[in-house]
Amino acid sequence: MSSSTTSILPSLSPPQPPQTQHLEHLSQEEQDKLKASVFQRLHPKLYLEKYLEEEVRPDGRELGGWRGVFLNVGSISTAEGSALVRMGDTTVVCGVKAEIAEPELDREGEGFLVPNLDLPAMCSPKFKPGPPSEEAQVLSERLNQALLTSNVLPLSSLCIESGKAVWVLYMDATCINYDGNAFDATLLAMVAALRNTTLPQAKHDSETHQTLCSRSKPRVPLQLANSVPIATSFGIFDSKYVLADPTAFEEPLLDASISVVLGDGGEIISLEQLGSVLVEDVQDGNGEWVKRDVLKECIEAARARRDVLVKEVLNGK
Amino acid sequence: MAQNVFDRRRTNGPEESTPFIYEEDISNPVRPQETCRKGRKPADIRPIFLQPGLINQAAGSAYIEMDRTKIACAIYGPRQSKNVAFHEKGRLNVEVKFAPYSCLTRRAPMRDAEDRSVAMALHQALLASVRLESFPKATIDIFITVIETDGMEGCVAAGSIAASTALAHAGIEVLGLVMSCSAAAMGSEVWLDPTDEESRLSNGTLVLSCMPALTTVTSVWQTGRMAPNQALSCMVASQNRCDDIHTIVAQALLLDNSKSNQENL
Amino acid sequence: MASTTSLSKAEKSYIQAGLLANPPTRGDGRSAQDFRTISLQTSVAPLANGSARVSIGRDPHDGSGGTEVLAATKLEVESVDLGSGSGGVNGGRVMCSVTCSPAAYPHLSSAALDDLQYDLTTILNSTLTHPSLHPKNLTILPGKKSWLLNLDLVVLVDSGNVFDALFLAARAALWDTKVPRTRSVEYKARKAGGGGEGGEKGDMEVDEEVVSGFDTRQIRHATDFELPDYWDEGEELDGRDRWPVCVTLNLVPPAHFLDATLEEEAAIPLRLLLMFSFDSDEPHIQGMRTMGNGELTVPQLGELLKEGEKYARQIWQSLNAKLKEEELGRIKERNKF
């Protein structure tokens, strides 16, 4: 029996500070980093709040700041056109494959454009292997709507022989690394891939009912419209802060989100708002929080962003 | 014509569509036999570009480019095995996905038998290298996305190099890095790292996966018609080349590690 | 491959110790290179173009136990036209698939069973459908129609060594396969008014056109084929001598043994599959695969290749003798009439 008294009653002494003996091998800086990352995991909302109170976000950006965009086209030789986009850490690869099909009976002179986004299990721990998740389905549908509404590629330009043969462009985007805001990155990748796509010259032989392409004749780029759709997304946190281009850490903490797809000259192609976008960040004379609708601000910010993207990123390619 | 199965979870195209065919291919279908290798010596492999740590969401990741083979690999784990009975050694779960634009004819986004056969080959190659007893009841998920492929053998070889790099990047205990090299038997010669065209013209192909650090072989996969001594010479040539690949991979990992150490400082 | 038998550590080490002993001892008293009794029958499925049934280690008294595999080939006509939608290739195609009867693996879920089927199919497909083994008589009409050879294998019971059984059954079924003889037929359409081969005279006042060999305006409407003799089984599949046999070397370094039972398979982590073909003077490897968690060295592989060749040659010779015997038996039966 040990000589020290080991009481079976619960200890009434004040709680001890967390034992740090097991962290002694780390430097003070590393210990702080570990504590911060534990705090981030256990209390993500508080963690983000503390940053936003200082008018900065966890990755160092301003509230309305954007992540750097990197674009690379034409690296996949098996595809008719391809593009790789990195928006911060979010990486999306888009490849365009062309096939030939018979047109629909009521749209004899129109081809097909089939965009799809795949969020495989590899891009984030929150996606499981298997059929497309809800998020992937929603994003695919939104991309489809955005591309069709903007008419960036008029479907009549994909016609080879009216009523007999048309081009089908399968645009498959794969997200390789998901760090939030896959929609913006994917739309940019798809648009860039379309600009990079070239199709062989095809001729339909009505006798043999076959469509043959020529290897010797040069390939033809797509007849795209001048106005390319660019998407910009925002999130509202705690009904107080408007965050542009949210990351994967911020996304689940948002109360509401706004996604704007703009064409040339600021025309709105699509606008999606989920949740209330009334922000309370100003107090009036009585100390009451004033509610402000930020939708217009977001659209303005999106316009500015689009100009920057089109000039620097797309026109370089 | 490719029948497109209607999938309510994706945007669908027309019911049937065919890949386009070139006029010239129909009129001149016969291609001349390759007697001399174009552009490379028989024992040369294509240059490797390897980048660990491409995917920050994953525990470990790597991206490899070998000319026209581009593969991204992400490793999650060891994490809890759900829905599986108790197992005292860890499990390795390899899943391979070919992007629809990765092959000359578009592949359907559904998983098919080819995905699984590549996954099986990679599983076999990596199984012996991982210290499974260090994580009982847990699974390591290895996800491979093939962005562009130039032949199945090249795919398996590049995939195992990427997966091994990613395992090391994730800090999972391994007995050694697994390197793979593919070889094709062309007549009496052995051509290393054949392209799709070259392996189709050859009599047979062989993919050898080994751990150069331990000079042991973890997996051999041979198809086609070869004499036994030819198969042996393919294996010896591949193994020698794996030593060189090992140096490249080790360097890439060291570089990445020193870079991340610098960032932390 | 899913390890379907679970063994305790004690059982595993018992089996391994027995195999490493000198001389090696096994549960059923066999030596390291002994096979269980193999029984083979061909032409077991009358509706198939070729079939075979193989069982390894079946109890002779009550017919139970043992690994049993059934293989059957069926020929289908495929269109080779590029725009027609079928996958036909000029020169014919060979497709192989393995299914596992759920009765053979009662404790596997259907998903796991699917996976197992996929895996077995992959191994057989990659070996047997390789262009070097492609039979040359699968064309019916060059550029238009060809045969699709479907080889289907069913694992009815699995008591270990399923790969050797699968390849034996495949080779036997392909040996037994008869390709129906075809003859191509052409229909030439006459110009307006007439039709069909007979060329009936319709309400035409114009003289019938004389068919000239230089008249390129004639359009050949249909090119078809027919079976000249309905009752003829057909000719042998070309290159039936080339199909390989498989020998599975179960590795307990430095030793190895053949024809493992389920328990032995579960106790041994690593095995080497070798597919050999002895159709010409020189032996050829048609396939090689390592399976399981283990390591080898290249010199060891070289040794195993040599040993495997010897075993495969014995299997090959016995199989050929049996196949010839079966064939003679069938010819005698037919000639009884």
TrEMBL record, chain A:
GO CC annotation, single: ribosome
Pfam families to which the protein is assigned, alphabetical: RNase_PH, RNase_PH_C
Gene Ontology terms: biological process: exonucleolytic trimming to generate mature 3'-end of 5.8S rRNA from tricistronic rRNA transcript (SSU-rRNA, 5.8S rRNA, LSU-rRNA); nuclear mRNA surveillance; nuclear polyadenylation-dependent rRNA catabolic process; rRNA catabolic process; TRAMP-dependent tRNA surveillance pathway; U1 snRNA 3'-end processing; U4 snRNA 3'-end processing; U5 snRNA 3'-end processing
Chain intervals for the UniProt region annotation (Disordered): 1-21
Gene3D superfamilies hit by this protein: GHMP Kinase, N-terminal domain
Start and end residues of each Exoribonuclease phosphorolytic domain: 67-200, 228-304
Biased composition (Low complexity): 1-11
Keywords noted in UniProt: Cytoplasm, Exosome, Nucleus, Ribonucleoprotein, Ribosomal protein, RNA-binding, rRNA processing
GO molecular function: mRNA 3'-UTR AU-rich region binding
InterPro entries: ExoRNase_PH_dom1, ExoRNase_PH_dom2, ExoRNase_PH_dom2_sf, Exosome_comp_Rrp42_subfam, PNPase/RNase_PH_dom_sf, Ribosomal_Su5_D2-typ_SF, Rrp43
Localization (cell): Cytoplasm; Nucleus, Nucleolus
Family recorded in the similarity comment: Belongs to the RNase PH family.
Protein name: Ribosomal RNA-processing protein 43
Upper taxonomic lineage: Eukaryota, Fungi, Dikarya, Basidiomycota, Agaricomycotina
UniProtKB/TrEMBL annotation, chain B:
Superkingdom assignment: Eukaryota
Boundaries of every Exoribonuclease phosphorolytic domain copy: 45-173
A single MF term (Gene Ontology): RNA binding
GO cellular component, one term: nuclear exosome (RNase complex)
Sorted UniProt keywords: Cytoplasm, Exosome, Nucleus, RNA-binding, rRNA processing
Entry keyword annotation includes Lipid biosynthesis: no
Family: Belongs to the RNase PH family.
The name this protein goes by in its record: mRNA transport regulator 3
Species per Swiss-Prot/TrEMBL record: Gymnopilus junonius (Spectacular rustgill mushroom)
TrEMBL record, chain C:
Protein name: Ribosomal RNA-processing protein 42
BP GO annotations: exonucleolytic trimming to generate mature 3'-end of 5.8S rRNA from tricistronic rRNA transcript (SSU-rRNA, 5.8S rRNA, LSU-rRNA); nuclear mRNA surveillance; nuclear polyadenylation-dependent rRNA catabolic process; rRNA catabolic process; TRAMP-dependent tRNA surveillance pathway; U1 snRNA 3'-end processing; U4 snRNA 3'-end processing; U5 snRNA 3'-end processing
Alphabetical list of Gene3D superfamilies matching this protein: GHMP Kinase, N-terminal domain
Cross-referenced InterPro entries: ExoRNase_PH_dom1, ExoRNase_PH_dom2_sf, Exosome_comp_Rrp42_subfam, PNPase/RNase_PH_dom_sf, Ribosomal_Su5_D2-typ_SF
Domain Exoribonuclease phosphorolytic: 34-180
Keyword list, A-Z: Cytoplasm, Exosome, Ribonucleoprotein, Ribosomal protein
Family indicated by similarity: Belongs to the RNase PH family.
A matching Pfam family: RNase_PH
